[in-house]
């Protein structure tokens, strides 16, 4: 395959490569960088492509491998290596104790708000919160599926109203 043919085929796959890059990175700027790196590697390694094989698959593999390697580099860059004799750097951090009083109070108040819900909405809501699927709740309670969904919706709506009335003033202060 000549260089002009290779570049022509590559250009035909540009849209697909950009889409795949965005799918991998979930960020348009990172996707552009990934596409450029793929284009550079494909052009510089054009001689390694065997004519008659699938160019699209070859390019996608290059892109996927670049993405994986970059991801691994990011993960490794966050790793702390301490080569000192007594692990001075790892042991030098102070012990941090978090005060969870605020979150504990909010959780307790939220549980109290849930307890104030009508039993017909509270039970399906709590079952859904605990991980039951809508159909499982409907079967367990002997209710139609639509009724279960409605009751969970109304429980959420009531909780939002209670939270807004309780904490609505706090939003304005921040």
UniProtKB/TrEMBL annotation:
One of its GO terms (biological process) is DNA-templated transcription initiation. The keyword Transcription regulation applies. Residues 109-159 form the RNA polymerase sigma factor 70 region 4 type domain. CDD domains: Sigma70_r4 (cd06171). The keyword Transcription applies. This is RNA polymerase sigma factor. Signal peptide: none annotated. GO terms for molecular function: DNA binding; sigma factor activity. Belongs to the sigma-70 factor family. ECF subfamily. Keywords: Sigma factor, Transcription, Transcription regulation. Gene3D superfamilies: 1.10.1740.10, Winged helix-like DNA-binding domain superfamily/Winged helix DNA-binding domain. It comes from the Bacteria. Coiled coil: none annotated. Residues 16-74 form the RNA polymerase sigma-70 region domain.
